[in-house]
């Protein structure tokens, strides 16, 4: 089975809303919501990979604040190792360059979205009372 190591950014604003990204219909796992981010490349550490991916996908810079968790999830034909980090916008305004759309969502509304299955443990952590 193909294995990929992926970083995901839980970007929160001052009121704790989370920036959620909808995968486009050209992507694998189309129409699922996810944390913006992507595959770690050779020679990068995870925060470096995350800042690069966010710049590419959202056109802004983030501060990577702390690790939330890591999850291994087996999809039908691939194993994803997802590492999630709490982040804040450092510079710029996020725009959806690759996603179908992005949206700031209140913590108590997050469960209403159709999330990529690998993201569920992170959601449980960030929405825990
Ligand atoms: N970025 C991101 N990917 C996630 C999350 N949850 C999850 O299962 N994934 C999966 C979807 C993808 O298979 C993989 C991330 O790959 P990616 O977004 O960099 O690239 P991709 O496979 O869509 O496209 P490609 O560039 O390889 O063609 O991890 C998440 O929260 N964020």
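^ structure tokens above, recovered residues below v
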């Amino acid at each position: 089975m193909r294995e990929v190591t992926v970083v995901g950014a839980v970007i929160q604003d001052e009121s704790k809303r989370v920036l959620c990204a909808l995968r486009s219909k050209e992507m694998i796992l189309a129409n699922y919501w996810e944390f913006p981010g992507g595959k770690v490349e050779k020679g990068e550490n995870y925060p470096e990979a995350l800042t690069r991916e966010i710049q590419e996908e959202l056109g802004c810079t983030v501060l990577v604040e702390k690790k939330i968790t890591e999850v291994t999830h087996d999809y039908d034909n691939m194993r994803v190792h997802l590492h999630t980090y709490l982040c804040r916008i450092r510079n710029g305004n996020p725009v959806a360059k690759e996603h179908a759309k992005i949206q700031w969502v209140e913590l108590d509304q997050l469960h209403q979205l159709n999330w990529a299955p690998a993201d569920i443990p992170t959601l449980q952590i960030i929405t825990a009372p």
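The mean pLDDT is 97.
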